[in-house]
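Regression check, iron/sulfur cluster case 423:
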Amino acid sequence: MKKKCAFWIDGKSYEADEGENLVDAALAHQMFIPSLCYHKHLEPPLGTCRTCICKINGKYGPACTEKVHDGLKIEINTPELLDMRKAVVEMMFAEGNHFCPSCEKSGACDLQHMGYELGVATARFPHLFEDRLIDFKAKRMIMEHNRCIKCRRCVEEVFTDEGKRVFMYVNRGNETVVGIDYEQESQLTEAQALHAMKLCPTGAIIVRGESLPRPMGDRVFDNQSVQKDFHSAPIQQMEADPKEKKRVATVSLAGCFGCHMSLLDIDTGILDVAELVSFDKSPLTDIKKFSGRCHLGLVEGGCCNSHNIEVLQNFRKMCDVLVVVGECAVWGGVPAMRNTIPLSECLEEAYLHSLTSETGETIIPYHEDLPKMLDRVYACNEIVRVDYSIPGCPPSAEHIWKAVKSILFGAEFSLLYAEFKYD
Ligand code: SF4
Ligand code: SF4
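Current build output:
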Protein backbone atom coordinates (compact mmCIF):
# COMPACT_ATOMS: atom_id res chain seq x y z
CA MET A 1 0.00 0.00 0.00
CA LYS A 2 1.28 3.47 -0.90
CA LYS A 3 2.38 5.79 1.88
CA LYS A 4 0.03 8.73 2.46
CA CYS A 5 1.26 12.28 2.92
CA ALA A 6 -0.24 15.66 3.83
CA PHE A 7 0.18 18.63 1.51
CA TRP A 8 -1.33 22.11 1.30
CA ILE A 9 -3.19 23.75 -1.58
CA ASP A 10 -4.02 27.45 -1.21
CA GLY A 11 -3.68 27.17 2.57
CA LYS A 12 -5.83 24.03 3.05
CA SER A 13 -4.46 20.64 3.98
CA TYR A 14 -5.14 17.56 1.80
CA GLU A 15 -4.00 13.94 1.68
CA ALA A 16 -2.50 12.07 -1.27
CA ASP A 17 -0.29 9.09 -2.10
CA GLU A 18 3.32 10.10 -1.67
CA GLY A 19 4.92 10.56 -5.09
CA GLU A 20 1.61 11.16 -6.90
CA ASN A 21 1.75 13.75 -9.63
CA LEU A 22 0.60 17.14 -8.30
CA VAL A 23 -1.86 17.75 -11.17
CA ASP A 24 -3.57 14.41 -10.44
CA ALA A 25 -3.46 14.88 -6.66
CA ALA A 26 -5.12 18.31 -6.98
CA LEU A 27 -7.75 16.96 -9.38
CA ALA A 28 -8.60 14.18 -6.92
CA HIS A 29 -9.66 17.01 -4.59
CA GLN A 30 -11.67 18.74 -7.36
CA MET A 31 -9.00 21.33 -8.08
CA PHE A 32 -8.27 21.78 -11.76
CA ILE A 33 -4.75 22.80 -12.77
CA PRO A 34 -4.87 23.53 -16.50
CA SER A 35 -2.26 21.82 -18.67
CA LEU A 36 -1.74 21.18 -22.36
CA CYS A 37 1.22 18.80 -22.32
CA TYR A 38 0.60 16.74 -19.18
CA HIS A 39 -0.74 13.21 -19.73
CA LYS A 40 -0.70 10.57 -17.02
CA HIS A 41 0.89 7.91 -19.20
CA LEU A 42 3.93 10.05 -20.06
CA GLU A 43 6.68 9.51 -17.50
CA PRO A 44 8.64 11.66 -16.95
CA PRO A 45 6.11 14.41 -17.74
CA LEU A 46 7.05 16.71 -20.60
CA GLY A 47 6.74 19.99 -18.67
CA THR A 48 6.90 21.96 -21.92
CA CYS A 49 3.77 24.14 -22.11
CA ARG A 50 4.03 25.87 -18.69
CA THR A 51 0.23 26.33 -18.57
CA CYS A 52 0.17 24.59 -15.18
CA ILE A 53 2.38 27.19 -13.51
CA CYS A 54 1.86 27.27 -9.72
CA LYS A 55 3.72 28.57 -6.68
CA ILE A 56 5.48 25.55 -5.19
CA ASN A 57 7.02 26.05 -1.75
CA GLY A 58 7.21 29.78 -2.54
CA LYS A 59 8.75 29.43 -6.02
CA TYR A 60 7.06 29.55 -9.43
CA GLY A 61 7.19 26.28 -11.37
CA PRO A 62 5.16 23.81 -13.42
CA ALA A 63 2.85 21.59 -11.35
CA CYS A 64 3.02 18.69 -13.81
CA THR A 65 6.66 17.90 -13.01
CA GLU A 66 6.11 17.98 -9.23
CA LYS A 67 5.45 14.92 -7.06
CA VAL A 68 3.47 15.24 -3.85
CA HIS A 69 5.41 14.79 -0.62
CA ASP A 70 4.84 15.55 3.04
CA GLY A 71 4.68 19.26 3.81
CA LEU A 72 4.48 20.40 0.15
CA LYS A 73 2.81 23.81 -0.01
CA ILE A 74 1.37 25.01 -3.29
CA GLU A 75 -0.72 27.93 -4.45
CA ILE A 76 -2.74 27.36 -7.59
CA ASN A 77 -5.58 29.86 -7.68
CA THR A 78 -4.24 33.27 -6.71
CA PRO A 79 -5.26 36.10 -9.09
CA GLU A 80 -1.57 36.47 -10.02
CA LEU A 81 -1.24 32.80 -11.03
CA LEU A 82 -4.52 32.83 -12.96
CA ASP A 83 -3.26 35.84 -14.88
CA MET A 84 0.14 34.23 -15.54
CA ARG A 85 -1.51 31.10 -16.93
CA LYS A 86 -3.77 33.19 -19.10
CA ALA A 87 -0.72 35.12 -20.35
CA VAL A 88 1.06 31.86 -21.27
CA VAL A 89 -1.90 30.81 -23.44
CA GLU A 90 -2.24 34.31 -24.92
CA MET A 91 1.45 34.11 -25.92
CA MET A 92 0.78 30.83 -27.74
CA PHE A 93 -2.03 32.47 -29.72
CA ALA A 94 0.08 35.56 -30.48
CA GLU A 95 3.21 33.58 -31.39
CA GLY A 96 1.54 31.16 -33.81
CA ASN A 97 -0.99 31.82 -36.55
CA HIS A 98 -4.28 30.50 -35.23
CA PHE A 99 -7.32 31.02 -37.45
CA CYS A 100 -9.82 28.81 -35.64
CA PRO A 101 -12.76 29.21 -38.04
CA SER A 102 -10.67 27.68 -40.83
CA CYS A 103 -8.87 25.02 -38.77
CA GLU A 104 -9.39 21.28 -39.17
CA LYS A 105 -9.15 20.81 -35.41
CA SER A 106 -11.52 23.57 -34.32
CA GLY A 107 -13.91 22.33 -31.66
CA ALA A 108 -11.62 19.42 -30.81
CA CYS A 109 -8.47 21.44 -30.04
CA ASP A 110 -6.89 21.50 -26.57
CA LEU A 111 -5.32 24.92 -27.08
CA GLN A 112 -8.63 26.42 -28.12
CA HIS A 113 -10.31 24.73 -25.17
CA MET A 114 -7.67 26.13 -22.80
CA GLY A 115 -8.39 29.59 -24.23
CA TYR A 116 -12.06 29.15 -23.36
CA GLU A 117 -11.27 27.65 -19.97
CA LEU A 118 -9.03 30.56 -18.99
CA GLY A 119 -11.32 33.20 -20.51
CA VAL A 120 -8.85 34.41 -23.15
CA ALA A 121 -10.84 36.95 -25.16
CA THR A 122 -7.93 38.69 -26.84
CA ALA A 123 -4.14 38.42 -26.60
CA ARG A 124 -2.48 41.31 -24.80
CA PHE A 125 0.66 40.66 -26.86
CA PRO A 126 1.10 41.75 -30.48
CA HIS A 127 0.59 38.94 -32.98
CA LEU A 128 3.87 38.06 -34.68
CA PHE A 129 2.30 36.87 -37.96
CA GLU A 130 5.48 34.97 -38.85
CA ASP A 131 5.49 33.32 -42.24
CA ARG A 132 5.95 29.65 -41.30
CA LEU A 133 6.29 26.60 -43.44
CA ILE A 134 3.41 24.22 -44.06
CA ASP A 135 5.11 20.91 -44.83
CA PHE A 136 3.26 18.90 -47.50
CA LYS A 137 6.10 16.48 -48.26
CA ALA A 138 4.99 13.55 -46.10
CA LYS A 139 2.84 10.82 -47.65
CA ARG A 140 -0.06 10.94 -45.25
CA MET A 141 0.31 14.02 -43.13
CA ILE A 142 0.61 17.75 -43.42
CA MET A 143 2.61 19.55 -40.73
CA GLU A 144 1.12 23.00 -40.10
CA HIS A 145 3.99 24.75 -38.31
CA ASN A 146 1.82 27.84 -37.75
CA ARG A 147 -0.15 25.95 -35.11
CA CYS A 148 2.56 23.91 -33.37
CA ILE A 149 3.16 24.83 -29.71
CA LYS A 150 6.19 22.52 -29.47
CA CYS A 151 4.71 20.46 -26.67
CA ARG A 152 6.79 17.41 -27.73
CA ARG A 153 3.91 14.94 -27.53
CA CYS A 154 4.28 13.70 -31.11
CA VAL A 155 8.04 13.28 -30.63
CA GLU A 156 7.57 11.09 -27.56
CA GLU A 157 4.46 9.16 -28.56
CA VAL A 158 4.42 8.44 -32.28
CA PHE A 159 6.43 5.38 -33.35
CA THR A 160 6.24 2.93 -36.22
CA ASP A 161 5.61 -0.79 -35.58
CA GLU A 162 9.42 -1.18 -35.66
CA GLY A 163 9.71 1.34 -32.82
CA LYS A 164 11.19 4.11 -35.00
CA ARG A 165 10.44 7.77 -34.21
CA VAL A 166 8.40 9.68 -36.79
CA PHE A 167 8.73 13.22 -35.38
CA MET A 168 11.78 14.97 -34.00
CA TYR A 169 12.87 18.43 -32.91
CA VAL A 170 15.13 20.16 -35.42
CA ASN A 171 17.14 23.37 -34.91
CA ARG A 172 17.56 25.06 -31.55
CA GLY A 173 16.14 27.89 -29.42
CA ASN A 174 13.62 30.10 -31.24
CA GLU A 175 14.37 28.25 -34.47
CA THR A 176 13.17 24.90 -33.08
CA VAL A 177 10.52 23.19 -35.21
CA VAL A 178 9.07 19.70 -35.31
CA GLY A 179 10.37 17.79 -38.31
CA ILE A 180 8.96 14.62 -39.90
CA ASP A 181 11.03 11.61 -40.87
CA TYR A 182 9.28 11.09 -44.22
CA GLU A 183 10.45 7.51 -44.60
CA GLN A 184 9.17 6.47 -41.17
CA GLU A 185 5.96 8.45 -41.66
CA SER A 186 5.19 6.41 -44.77
CA GLN A 187 5.34 3.25 -42.60
CA LEU A 188 2.49 4.42 -40.35
CA THR A 189 -0.90 2.81 -40.81
CA GLU A 190 -3.91 5.05 -41.43
CA ALA A 191 -5.00 4.43 -37.82
CA GLN A 192 -1.57 5.37 -36.44
CA ALA A 193 -1.53 8.55 -38.51
CA LEU A 194 -5.00 9.48 -37.25
CA HIS A 195 -3.84 8.78 -33.69
CA ALA A 196 -1.00 11.31 -34.20
CA MET A 197 -3.50 13.90 -35.44
CA LYS A 198 -5.69 13.33 -32.40
CA LEU A 199 -2.95 13.41 -29.77
CA CYS A 200 -1.56 16.71 -31.04
CA PRO A 201 -3.15 19.32 -28.74
CA THR A 202 -3.51 21.70 -31.70
CA GLY A 203 -4.24 21.39 -35.40
CA ALA A 204 -0.54 21.16 -36.32
CA ILE A 205 -0.68 17.53 -37.48
CA ILE A 206 -3.26 16.97 -40.16
CA VAL A 207 -3.91 13.69 -41.94
CA ARG A 208 -4.77 14.36 -45.57
CA GLY A 209 -8.52 14.26 -46.10
CA GLU A 210 -9.30 14.17 -42.36
CA SER A 211 -10.98 16.86 -40.32
CA LEU A 212 -12.14 16.89 -36.71
CA PRO A 213 -14.22 20.08 -36.48
CA ARG A 214 -17.26 20.24 -34.27
CA PRO A 215 -19.86 22.99 -34.06
CA MET A 216 -20.52 24.94 -30.90
CA GLY A 217 -22.59 22.92 -28.45
CA ASP A 218 -20.97 19.75 -29.75
CA ARG A 219 -17.35 20.75 -29.11
CA VAL A 220 -15.34 18.11 -27.26
CA PHE A 221 -15.16 20.25 -24.16
CA ASP A 222 -18.63 21.82 -24.13
CA ASN A 223 -19.85 19.36 -21.55
CA GLN A 224 -16.59 18.88 -19.68
CA SER A 225 -15.63 22.44 -18.84
CA VAL A 226 -14.78 23.35 -15.28
CA GLN A 227 -16.04 26.87 -16.06
CA LYS A 228 -19.73 27.56 -16.01
CA ASP A 229 -19.53 31.25 -16.70
CA PHE A 230 -17.09 34.13 -16.76
CA HIS A 231 -17.85 37.17 -14.71
CA SER A 232 -15.71 39.65 -16.51
CA ALA A 233 -14.42 42.80 -14.85
CA PRO A 234 -17.34 45.08 -13.97
CA ILE A 235 -18.40 47.03 -17.01
CA GLN A 236 -18.12 50.80 -16.73
CA GLN A 237 -21.71 51.76 -17.25
CA MET A 238 -23.08 55.00 -18.60
CA GLU A 239 -25.35 57.28 -16.65
CA ALA A 240 -28.57 55.35 -17.26
CA ASP A 241 -31.78 57.21 -17.93
CA PRO A 242 -34.25 54.49 -18.92
CA LYS A 243 -36.51 57.02 -20.64
CA GLU A 244 -33.80 58.25 -22.94
CA LYS A 245 -33.26 56.28 -26.12
CA LYS A 246 -29.56 55.70 -26.70
CA ARG A 247 -28.08 56.30 -30.12
CA VAL A 248 -26.11 53.42 -31.59
CA ALA A 249 -24.03 53.35 -34.77
CA THR A 250 -22.59 50.25 -36.43
CA VAL A 251 -20.10 49.66 -39.22
CA SER A 252 -18.52 46.75 -41.07
CA LEU A 253 -14.85 47.21 -42.03
CA ALA A 254 -12.63 44.29 -43.18
CA GLY A 255 -15.01 41.53 -42.16
CA CYS A 256 -17.55 39.27 -43.81
CA PHE A 257 -20.67 41.00 -42.42
CA GLY A 258 -21.26 37.89 -40.28
CA CYS A 259 -21.24 39.91 -37.06
CA HIS A 260 -23.98 42.16 -38.45
CA MET A 261 -25.95 39.06 -39.44
CA SER A 262 -25.47 37.85 -35.89
CA LEU A 263 -26.77 41.20 -34.56
CA LEU A 264 -29.97 40.51 -36.49
CA ASP A 265 -30.13 36.96 -35.18
CA ILE A 266 -32.16 38.09 -32.20
CA ASP A 267 -35.10 37.89 -34.59
CA THR A 268 -38.17 39.52 -33.08
CA GLY A 269 -36.01 40.59 -30.12
CA ILE A 270 -34.91 43.42 -32.44
CA LEU A 271 -38.28 45.05 -31.64
CA ASP A 272 -37.32 45.21 -27.94
CA VAL A 273 -33.94 46.62 -28.91
CA ALA A 274 -35.64 49.24 -31.08
CA GLU A 275 -37.60 50.36 -28.00
CA LEU A 276 -34.35 51.04 -26.17
CA VAL A 277 -32.03 52.35 -28.85
CA SER A 278 -32.22 54.26 -32.10
CA PHE A 279 -29.81 53.35 -34.84
CA ASP A 280 -27.82 56.14 -36.46
CA LYS A 281 -25.17 55.53 -39.13
CA SER A 282 -25.35 51.82 -39.85
CA PRO A 283 -25.76 49.30 -42.66
CA LEU A 284 -28.86 48.20 -40.70
CA THR A 285 -30.54 51.56 -41.40
CA ASP A 286 -28.60 52.43 -44.55
CA ILE A 287 -27.90 55.83 -42.97
CA LYS A 288 -24.56 56.79 -44.50
CA LYS A 289 -23.56 59.77 -42.33
CA PHE A 290 -23.66 60.43 -38.59
CA SER A 291 -26.61 62.66 -37.79
CA GLY A 292 -25.04 63.51 -34.43
CA ARG A 293 -22.92 62.14 -31.62
CA CYS A 294 -23.73 58.53 -30.60
CA HIS A 295 -23.61 56.83 -27.21
CA LEU A 296 -22.21 53.61 -28.61
CA GLY A 297 -20.41 52.47 -31.75
CA LEU A 298 -20.20 48.79 -32.71
CA VAL A 299 -17.39 47.97 -35.13
CA GLU A 300 -17.12 44.74 -37.10
CA GLY A 301 -13.90 43.96 -38.99
CA GLY A 302 -10.33 45.16 -38.81
CA CYS A 303 -8.54 47.63 -41.10
CA CYS A 304 -7.16 46.41 -44.40
CA ASN A 305 -7.17 49.70 -46.35
CA SER A 306 -6.93 53.47 -45.90
CA HIS A 307 -10.73 53.88 -46.07
CA ASN A 308 -11.20 51.47 -43.13
CA ILE A 309 -8.83 53.62 -41.06
CA GLU A 310 -10.68 56.84 -41.93
CA VAL A 311 -14.05 55.31 -41.02
CA LEU A 312 -12.76 53.83 -37.77
CA GLN A 313 -11.16 57.10 -36.67
CA ASN A 314 -14.44 58.89 -37.40
CA PHE A 315 -16.34 56.31 -35.32
CA ARG A 316 -13.95 56.90 -32.43
CA LYS A 317 -14.56 60.64 -32.75
CA MET A 318 -18.36 60.36 -32.94
CA CYS A 319 -19.07 57.63 -30.34
CA ASP A 320 -18.75 57.90 -26.56
CA VAL A 321 -18.07 54.19 -26.18
CA LEU A 322 -16.45 52.08 -28.90
CA VAL A 323 -17.01 48.32 -28.88
CA VAL A 324 -15.26 46.02 -31.34
CA VAL A 325 -17.27 42.93 -32.24
CA GLY A 326 -15.84 39.66 -33.55
CA GLU A 327 -12.40 38.21 -34.20
CA CYS A 328 -11.61 40.38 -37.25
CA ALA A 329 -12.11 43.59 -35.26
CA VAL A 330 -10.45 42.21 -32.13
CA TRP A 331 -7.19 41.01 -33.73
CA GLY A 332 -7.57 40.79 -37.53
CA GLY A 333 -9.30 37.39 -37.78
CA VAL A 334 -9.52 35.47 -41.04
CA PRO A 335 -8.57 38.49 -43.25
CA ALA A 336 -5.28 38.60 -41.29
CA MET A 337 -4.32 35.30 -42.94
CA ARG A 338 -2.68 37.53 -45.53
CA ASN A 339 -0.44 39.10 -42.87
CA THR A 340 2.17 36.38 -43.29
CA ILE A 341 2.50 37.08 -47.02
CA PRO A 342 3.92 40.25 -48.67
CA LEU A 343 1.16 42.50 -50.08
CA SER A 344 2.58 42.37 -53.63
CA GLU A 345 2.29 38.55 -53.63
CA CYS A 346 -1.31 38.74 -52.35
CA LEU A 347 -2.28 41.16 -55.13
CA GLU A 348 -0.57 39.03 -57.77
CA GLU A 349 -2.34 35.94 -56.49
CA ALA A 350 -5.73 37.69 -56.45
CA TYR A 351 -5.54 39.46 -59.82
CA LEU A 352 -3.01 37.57 -61.96
CA HIS A 353 -2.80 33.94 -60.89
CA SER A 354 -6.13 33.05 -59.31
CA LEU A 355 -8.49 30.49 -60.81
CA THR A 356 -10.76 33.26 -62.05
CA SER A 357 -7.99 35.42 -63.61
CA GLU A 358 -7.86 35.66 -67.38
CA THR A 359 -4.92 33.72 -68.82
CA GLY A 360 -2.05 36.16 -69.44
CA GLU A 361 -3.60 38.87 -67.21
CA THR A 362 -0.98 41.52 -66.35
CA ILE A 363 -2.98 44.31 -64.71
CA ILE A 364 -3.39 44.79 -60.98
CA PRO A 365 -6.14 47.44 -60.68
CA TYR A 366 -4.98 50.76 -59.36
CA HIS A 367 -6.56 54.20 -59.29
CA GLU A 368 -5.80 57.12 -57.04
CA ASP A 369 -9.48 57.25 -56.01
CA LEU A 370 -9.39 53.66 -54.76
CA PRO A 371 -8.56 53.13 -51.06
CA LYS A 372 -4.91 52.14 -50.61
CA MET A 373 -4.33 48.59 -49.40
CA LEU A 374 -2.36 48.47 -46.14
CA ASP A 375 0.76 46.35 -45.76
CA ARG A 376 -1.23 44.06 -43.46
CA VAL A 377 -4.60 43.83 -41.70
CA TYR A 378 -4.67 45.79 -38.44
CA ALA A 379 -6.82 45.13 -35.38
CA CYS A 380 -8.99 48.11 -34.41
CA ASN A 381 -7.07 48.69 -31.18
CA GLU A 382 -3.89 49.21 -33.21
CA ILE A 383 -5.52 52.24 -34.83
CA VAL A 384 -7.77 53.82 -32.15
CA ARG A 385 -8.56 53.40 -28.46
CA VAL A 386 -11.12 50.64 -27.96
CA ASP A 387 -13.32 50.46 -24.85
CA TYR A 388 -14.58 46.87 -25.06
CA SER A 389 -13.94 43.77 -27.19
CA ILE A 390 -16.51 41.04 -27.83
CA PRO A 391 -14.75 37.93 -29.20
CA GLY A 392 -16.38 35.34 -31.46
CA CYS A 393 -16.63 34.42 -35.10
CA PRO A 394 -19.27 35.66 -34.93
CA PRO A 395 -20.32 36.32 -31.32
CA SER A 396 -23.89 35.23 -30.67
CA ALA A 397 -26.67 37.80 -30.84
CA GLU A 398 -27.47 37.17 -27.19
CA HIS A 399 -23.89 37.85 -26.15
CA ILE A 400 -23.66 41.08 -28.16
CA TRP A 401 -26.94 42.54 -26.93
CA LYS A 402 -26.27 41.52 -23.34
CA ALA A 403 -23.00 43.48 -23.45
CA VAL A 404 -24.67 46.45 -25.19
CA LYS A 405 -27.53 46.59 -22.66
CA SER A 406 -25.08 46.32 -19.82
CA ILE A 407 -23.00 49.25 -21.09
CA LEU A 408 -25.96 51.46 -21.98
CA PHE A 409 -28.47 50.66 -19.26
CA GLY A 410 -26.55 49.00 -16.44
CA ALA A 411 -28.09 45.56 -16.94
CA GLU A 412 -26.18 42.82 -15.11
CA PHE A 413 -23.50 41.22 -17.27
CA SER A 414 -22.25 37.68 -17.08
CA LEU A 415 -20.80 35.65 -19.88
CA LEU A 416 -21.82 32.00 -19.99
CA TYR A 417 -19.33 29.39 -21.14
CA ALA A 418 -21.83 28.40 -23.84
CA GLU A 419 -21.73 31.95 -25.26
CA PHE A 420 -17.96 32.32 -25.24
CA LYS A 421 -16.39 31.17 -28.48
CA TYR A 422 -14.02 32.03 -31.26
CA ASP A 423 -14.43 29.01 -33.53
S1 SF4 B 1 -8.45 25.23 -33.44
FE1 SF4 B 1 -6.57 25.13 -32.19
S2 SF4 B 1 -4.88 24.78 -33.60
FE2 SF4 B 1 -6.66 25.35 -34.80
S3 SF4 B 1 -6.38 27.54 -35.07
FE3 SF4 B 1 -7.69 27.30 -33.26
S4 SF4 B 1 -6.29 27.25 -31.51
FE4 SF4 B 1 -5.06 26.95 -33.36
S1 SF4 C 1 3.05 18.97 -33.75
FE1 SF4 C 1 1.47 18.94 -32.16
S2 SF4 C 1 2.10 17.29 -30.78
FE2 SF4 C 1 3.89 17.81 -32.01
S3 SF4 C 1 4.99 19.33 -30.79
FE3 SF4 C 1 3.66 20.47 -32.19
S4 SF4 C 1 1.79 20.84 -31.01
FE4 SF4 C 1 2.92 19.20 -29.93
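Comparison notes: The mean pLDDT is 91. The CA atoms of residues 112 and 237 lie 31 Å apart. No diff flagged against the previous build.
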